[in-house]
Structure formats: structure tokens, C-alpha cells
Input
Amino acid sequence: MTGSSFLNTPVLDAIDTAQFQSTRPFPWANPQYFIEPGRYGELLGSLPPLAQFRAFFGKQRKHGQGSHDRYVLDYERGMEIAPGWRDFVEELCGDQYRAFVCRLLGVSDVRFRFHWHFTPDGGEVSPHCDSKGKIGSQIFYLNTQDDWQWDWGGETVVLDDAGRFAADSAPAFEDFEAEYPAQTRDNRSLIFGRRGNSWHGVRRIACPPEHYRKVFIVVFEEHRPLRMALKKARRLVSGKELVTHKESLMY
Output
């Protein structure tokens, strides 16, 4: 199927801003069919091959938190990917999705980074709060009953610490007051806004070899041109690179 929109406009419009912002323990929503069902299958059938990914294992995280082991592929314009994925990302870069994210998070402008994560058996995302540079994310789940048994795990778990933990600490899953696992099957995604208590994680996956938890993640960063101009001025004075690699991946 080609030529139609990937974004399912009625689903976007149905996500109420006030309800999203008032959700506890921090703003989050777990919509279904955010991607038009006819085009969702197209994306599933044309995922980038694992050979394009880089291994990200055993990396020491700040604050004593466990390594988030997985294979990672960052999106860059001009990279070799299926046309459907290229068109999907370009639609995410368009006015409709950008206005949707700004509405939910209450900001005037936003920029995005995009990446795929494939996580094998034993992979885990230890409980953490995202860095202050992020204002939120959307995680698109890309497994189906044809390649994943749901008891293998892979759900992102929203965690409620009841205000007990500093973001620079390393609590375990069992230390939290409550947890809310996201639904991941049948064209689900998870959208959340970062606050000081935006704890979340993924419990250790138990799946056979050659199977992977597959997600596509959109990272939201507030676009503040003046702040960026000041950063570049300081870098120019100090002789540092004007644009970091991560910044070059923002759209």
C-alpha cells in the first residue's frame, strides 16, 4: 500500500491534552492504531536488517544504573532504508505530528531524533529517568504474534516512585510503589512527557536466540534557537565542534 498517510489522524485528535498532562505518575498514553493499520504492516515488513545496527552492550551508565543492552540504529537522512520507512519519518517531521507533540507537551516548538532498538534475550532497560535534554518520547512497538510470544516480555513499564527517589539514583523495579506496563501488541505505541519523576524501564527479556524486541523511538527535544546560538558561540570561543553528532541527528 502506498500513497496514503501513515498517521491515523482520528487517533491523534482523540488524545486529550488535559487528560494526558494530568495522568500519574507523569504524563503518558498508550494509544492503539496511531499508525494507519494498512501501513503499519508495510513498516513491519521492511525493517532495517540487523547488519545495519551497532552493538550497544556493557556500557556503564551514570548513577550506577545497569547497562541498557541492545542493538541501535540512528536515523539519518539519506541512509539506506526502505522507502516506506523514509516516508514515515518524513511525515513525522511534518507539521501535523510536530503540532501534535507541541500540543501534548505545552511547548511552542520541538525537534526530533529517531532510532531503532533491537534487544535480544537477556536485554533489560534498568529503571531510569531520561536526561534533562529530552522533554519526552514516543515508542512504537514493532513485534507481532508471528515473531514474538508476549510472555517473553518487552513492555515498557511506567514506574511510580511516590517522590522517593532522586533521578541520579539506581532503584530496582521492586522498589517502586506502583507500575503500569504498556500494552505492546497490535500497533501500540507509548507516548510520555519527561518530568523529574519520569521513571520507566523494561524488565529482562527472555526470548529464544534470533528473536528481538523491536521498537522505533522518537525522542522529543524542545527547540530553543537562542539557547542553541549561545551554545555555538561558547563552542566557537573554546574551539569545540559547533554541532555535536547527536545534534546533527535532530530534525
In short: The radius of gyration is 18 Å.
